[in-house]
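Let us work through a complete example step by step.
Step 1: write down the sequence.
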Amino acid sequence: MNGKHYRSIRISEILKKEISYIFLKKINDPRIINSMLTILDITLSKDLFNANVYIGFITENNKNICNKTIKIIQNCSGYVRLLLSKKIQLRIIPILNFKHDTSFSTGNYISNIINQIKKK
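Step 2: predict the structure and record it as tokens.
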């Protein structure tokens, strides 16, 4: 494993931890607080200028609501970057692109099917 790849993984883990903390403690928008979201993964570009933040929702009953929440989160990405710049020491804080990741709900769906099969 080369140093640049290791650095990218390390920075993405730090960003994941700090962004989770920001959504938990610093963001007071009830539309975000009530959505019960989780940061599933962060991928960084090779130059570390862009970060794709994959968000899953614990209760994904309505995809329209999830997409609206992602748009709300994307609108506050500048504020999240500002808070990140105060918390972590990086030369440049990456531009955050929030994306909806359905793997969490897919995993729950498969788990429910397996549990139903076990009951039979």
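Step 3: interpret the result. The longest strand covers residues 37-44.
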